[in-house]
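Just curious. Protein, please.
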Amino acid sequence: MTVIIRPDIVGSEAKGESTEMIVAIDGPAGVGKSTVAKLLASRLRYLYLDTGALYRAVAWAVLQNGRDPGDADAVAALLPTLTLQMRFMQETVRVSVNEKDVTGELRTPEVSAAASVVSAIPAVRAWLLPVQRQIGEKGSVVAEGRDIGTKVFPSASVKFFLDADAAVRAQRRHRELVAAGHGGAIEQTSADLAGRDSRDRSRAVAPLVPAEDAHHIDTSALSAEEVVDRMMAVVAAKL
């Protein structure tokens, strides 16, 4: 069971009119999806949906309950006992599992690694798919993840696929981990990303692939603001 507390969305004021479009952003870890998605949502006055937080919440629960993230049957059996809550507030999202706020615990290396494994389990993806669609059903959403444009919102008005050089991605992720107090060797970060890429791209259900109609952006040499500027130009053409 999942509870969504979603505020009313004001909508974009570009061209002096509101819209209910969904903007889908996909790509591997370390390309800056979360950063640019938040900035884009802020500019459009849309709700920002981090679908990865849902998978991380499930992964957190799996670890807390002593389950093996790779044991699909054990993870599937845990799902009916979980109540996830996403509370959308001004530019922030609070995530709770069974009424415990776990927002600050979702970005640890342990949860990240478990989320990568758990997200490949078909039962988990099937359980969370309607939740994600419920959040986006009213539109005015910028959603980021790995199968947003291909599976979650295949009819999204605008789709982006972000990518970047592997070394750049590793450096970005390593800086994030260090800033969060989880720093380690950058070589380990690079290896972790490579493993996640392999799992995300090869999983049987909703693998990480660009949607056919996605706009590709290489973020290697771009700042977050520059990426958002490019996105805004595409979005403005749809308004």
Summary: The chain has one domain: 2-230.
